[in-house]
Specification:
Blueprint (H helix, E strand, L loop, with lengths): L1 H16 L6 H7 L6 H10 L6 H13 L13 H36 L4 H15 L2 H15 L11 H6 L7 H7 L3 H38 L2 H8 L4 H30 L2 H6 L5 H10 L3 H29 L6
Amino acid sequence: MTIPIMLGVAILVFTAMRFIPGDPVDVMYGESGFITEDQLERMRKELNLDKPFHVQLYLFLSGLVRGDLGISYTRHRPVWDLIKERLPATVELAFGAFIFGIIIAIPIGIVSAVKQYSTIDRTSMAAAFVGISIPGFILGLMLILIFSVTLKLLPTAGRIDPILGLRLKDITGLHILDSIITRNPRALLDSIKHLILPSIALGAVLAAIVARVLRSSMIEVLRADYITLARAKGLRGFIVVTKHALRNALIPTVTVVGIQIGVLLGGNMIIECVFAWPGMGRLAVDAIKESDYSVIQGVVMIYALTFVMANLLVDIIYTFLNPKIEL
């Protein structure tokens, strides 16, 4: 289903872009006063904006088949090159948010289920409710005010100190990984410090959702007959919870995590803007402001592919968690 889904997304995105008010050429050059109407028309012809809708759609889809996402109207560069430059930053932020969310969510979910209705359970679920409810940009600003402005412990923006960034050899585009590969402890520490606040702001929702889902699944599993039998055989509580209950409780949790991975990669625009993080989210926001159709389409296609592949990965993981489920 990946191919028809991506085809449908491509057609939908392309069509939606054509309903955005304004002409990209007018946005780029029309207000400058230094270009004539003939030059504007020639520019529209070069960008294929003078062709009928179905011809533009055909050119767009044929380019996708070849791996060509088009040329940026405002930056005059291939869209794929722009995405490749920004993608590592987005992946690094998403990975940091994922690690934070999972490290927080799994212990809370397990403990809350085992100690149902206890003070720990009620406090954890209240915190999870707050985590789901509070907007990411509000949480991000609060973190900046507390840890950057007041306590002066962590930086407010960017991925790395500019001076350290110039000295860091770019191998993978992931600053933390590049720092490890090149054995640069100062760059590694600075990259981690820059990553902490945006990861918390982005990963808070993931942590809250996963904790609540895992708790509900664990409570249901802990009431099952085979868990009662395992305890009757004298197995230690830790073994019963981690080996027998947790594995089955992870099946619905994996579904949520898979969806949230797509959200982390595709829903980070606001967080990237708050923390001046140079990823695809900021690229998309800038492209929307500039009516740069090609960049918007390219970024959305990457986001859509991420969601599709995340769901495919979830289906595959299912077979390992529950052998009764077949591909």
